Amino acid sequence: MIEVNLGEKPNPRQQEFFRAKYRHIAYGGSRGGGKSWAMRTKFILLAGRYKGLKLLLLRRTLPELRENQIKPMQATLAQICSYNESKHEFAFPNGSVIKCGYCDSESDVYQFQGQEYDVIGMEEATTFTESQMQFITTCNRTTRSDFKPRMYYTCNPGGVGHAWVKRLFIDREYHEGENPDDYYFIPARVYDNPVLMRNNPEYVKTLEALPEHLRRAHLEGDWDVLAGQYFPNYRREKHTVEPFPIPQDWKRFRSIDWGFNDPCCVLWHACAPDGRVYTYRELYVRQTLARDVALQILQLSGQEHIDYTVVSPDMWQKRGQKDIQGESIAEIFTTNGVPVIRADNDRMVGWTVMREYMADAPDGVPYWQIFSTCKNLIRTIPLAVHDEHKVEDVSATCEDHALESARYGLMSRPRPNKIRPEPQPIPYSPFETKRRVRSGFFDV
Ligand SMILES: Nc1ncnc2c1ncn2[C@@H]1O[C@H](COP(=O)(O)OP(=O)(O)OP(=O)(O)O)[C@@H](O)[C@H]1O
Ligand SMILES: [Mg+2]
Question: Are 96 and 54 in contact (CB under 8 A)?
């Protein structure tokens, strides 16, 4: 029998993590609580306990996984098995395999398509988007009778996945098809980790000295502070409306963020006479040829009169996609009945314009309203976070296809009014009032 030195006795939270047998088990909160240690130790214990178990350990990027998990596992498992660099896996003598993987870009999850793992661990789960998590969950299945599939998550507040982790494990708000009894959360505290407290007491001091909102997130593990959220004023109840028939005379236009492997997002917008923009329809598809997207757009638009379609400038690049044969995506759209114009792609100005549209008009309703049927747009706005290196920009790691499409659309409109709310009651709609002032209706 080979003895493995796994480290010190697990702390009470780590013991709880080891004992939990739910379908989805999250261990999260404060930094440094011993979550990653618990994840890899649980994986090693499971691989040793069940013969032929298939485990997948994921982190957003491979270099991070190597530093944080693969290297310490190599040290722990030195007497048992070695790490296969090309297969990215530890193959145990009992047939169990721990595969190490990453999902750097949105489409990297498809490398796991059709694969089956009894156990999947997502390290730093809040760095994964919700659709990556949903896809990965489809690979967590088994044909074994002695083991039910399990997902493990370690996480800290903040990041692109903050909203879904919080929804499932903290707020416990579930969608159709999600069983509340499947989700179990173990809060992590740095003070629970005696190894760190003893060996690196400065680390806790560093956390204690962080600015208020970061301290609350990283030391106290407070999930209500979303450090780095790009659109903190976005509220689903304020910015979304139930669909209503758009009047014939409202100006309509479309915006497209093109993608083939990444999603392609088409949005339909309408301008009310008072200038308020309503985004009333969404098409969100991936791996669909440009010609087919154009046909779907025409079908969905029906008899509507669309003034123009503004699209990502990269649609003019000639690409090596097989249906293109030298034509740009923009040309394919145009020849298939969707003439397009190039969007203003100034990102910083564009995000500012979006924020302005999200602000309240003087009547207390934001200048931009989204129909509740635009699911992907509604889902991804709150997930936009600041870029770590260029803080004024949205991070490229976010699922930003609907955001970009909305940005192109709103950038094609005049900037919303910046009139501050008038004292109540307002005699006319504020847009109307301004027009009347301009046209000399009021003697001011
Ligand atoms: N039971 C244990 N035995 C030995 N070492 C441990 C134990 N628990 C935690 N540690 C060590 O404490 C340190 C911090 O733990 P770990 O990296 O797991 O924390 P974490 O919660 O994942 O941190 P972060 O939030 O930064 O990801 C590491 O050096 C880890 O090896
Ligand atoms: Mg960790």
Answer: yes
